[in-house]
Write a structure and sequence with these properties.
The chain is an alpha+beta fold and 108 residues long. The protein is built from 4 helices and 4 strands. Strand 3 and strand 4 form a beta hairpin. The chain is globular. The two termini are 17 Å apart.
Length: 108
Amino acid sequence: MFQNILTSSSSAEASHILLTTKDAKKELEKAKKEIGNDAKKFAQYAEKHSKCPSAKQGGSLGRFRKGDMAPPFDKAVFDPSNPLNTTIGPVQTTFGHHLIYIQSRKLQ
C-alpha cells in the first residue's frame, strides 16, 4: 500500500499483447521476431491475436501509474533499462504472457 502511494507519480503509456495458451511464451517469442520494434506491426498483431479487451485499440493500455498493473508487468514497464519504443518480453503474469511496447515513461 505505501509503495503505491510513494510511487504513484511515476506513470507510463504502453501497449501489450496478451496470450493465454499453453504455448503463449513460444508464440510471443516468434511474434517478437516478426514485429521487431515496429509500433504499427505491434498494434496490428495485438488487434488480431491479443486476448485482452485492449486488442480493439491495438493493445493500447493508455497512461497508467506504477502499481496499477500486475507486478511483473509493472516491473518491466518501469525498469529504466527497458528502452522506450521497443518490444519487450515475453513477461509472465497471472493473466498469461505479454509482449509490451512502452511509448513513454515518467519516473518520479
